[in-house]
Amino acid sequence: GAVVSQHPSRVICKSGTSVKIECRSLDFQATTMFWYRQFPKQSLMLMATSNEGSKATYEQGVEKDKFLINHASLTLSTLTVTSAHPEDSSFYICSASRSRGLNQPQHFGDGTRLSIL
Amino acid sequence: AQKVTQAQTEISVVEKEDVTLDCVYETRDTTYYLFWYKQPPSGELVFLIRRNSFDEQNEISGRYSWNFQKSTSSFNFTITASQVVDSAVYFCALSANAGNMLTFGGGTRLMVKP
Questions:
Q1: Which residues contact B37 (CB under 8 A, 6 or more apart)?
Q2: Minimal CB count within 10 Å: which of A95, A106, B87, B95?
Q3: Across residues A18-28, what is the average pLDDT?
Q4: Which residues, other chains included, contact B97 with Cβ-Cβ below 8 Å and sequence gap of 6+?
Q5: Which residues on chain A are in Cβ contact (under 8 Å) with B47?
Q6: Buried b (16+ CB within 10 A) or exposed e, B47-66
Q7: CA pseudo-torsion sign A84, A87, A91, A92
């Protein structure tokens, strides 16, 4: 159990395009979802935490207007990279958990490789 | 604040060698969880282990073993008789009293050569 599906797995698009990435919990209800960004040969950096039905909490330095997060249901969160530019090219990974409780593990999607030309 | 340090950025071994990946953590919380994940070249994160701060027993799973020592704030990971398929980046992570937010270490890239 605890399967998280992330779609698409890879996106290549032109500069200025907005890109939407979906993160779905397939077999459990996810009150909380997390979005990470990973540059080549670097670690995962938390971008934001989203709770179902409320606004996302962004980490310092992450532009809210650039990275729009919606968590409208207990099984789906979306990350939209608005007007993407080459510097937004990165690997984006989502995770989902049943709650924010310490004993609730995060279940990760397989990631989305975003390339902006 | 939480911090996880993986001092080894890259390790290269020959197949069948044993290899230990180091992880040192910092937290002021008394209740926390420690994790190890494997990230193969395809990019997905593969969960390996989760350890509660109150459970210092070492764990063995096949060729993998973990040594948790609170006295030195370390949670090291050993692969015995390494194989080429073990080549990946390995991340150590910590979640503490602030909830289940994860703090990741910088990762260790393991290359196992035939």
A1: A108, B45, B46, B47, B48, B90, B91, B93
A2: B87
A3: 96
A4: A102, B29, B30, B31, B32
A5: 105, 108
A6: ebbebebeeeeeeeeeebbb
A7: negative
CB nearest A43 (choices: B43, B99, B107) = B107
Q: Does A25 touch chain B (CB under 8 A)?
A: no
d(C-alpha A42, C-alpha B107), whole Å: 7
User: For B98, which residue in chain A has the nearest alpha carbon?
Assistant: A102
CB B24 within 8 A of CB B34: no
Looking at residue B85, its amino acid is V
pLDDT exceeds 90 at position A102: no
Contact between residue B51 and residue B33 where contact means Cβ atoms under 8 Å apart: yes
What pLDDT does residue B98 have? 66
Using alpha carbons, list the distances in angstroms from residue A72 to A30, A41, A43, B6.
11, 33, 28, 37
pLDDT (tens digit, 0 to 9) for every residue of chain B, 114 residues total? 899 999 999 999 999 999 999 999 999 999 999 999 999 999 999 999 999 999 888 899 999 999 999 999 999 999 999 999 999 999 999 998 767 889 999 999 999 999
**How many other CB atoms are there within 10 angstroms of residue B17's CB atom?**
14
Asked if B109's CB is within 8 angstroms of A41's CB, the reply is yes
Given a cut of 90, whether residue A100 has pLDDT beyond it is no
CB B46 within 8 A of CB B38: yes
Residue B23 to residue B93: CA distance in whole angstroms? 9
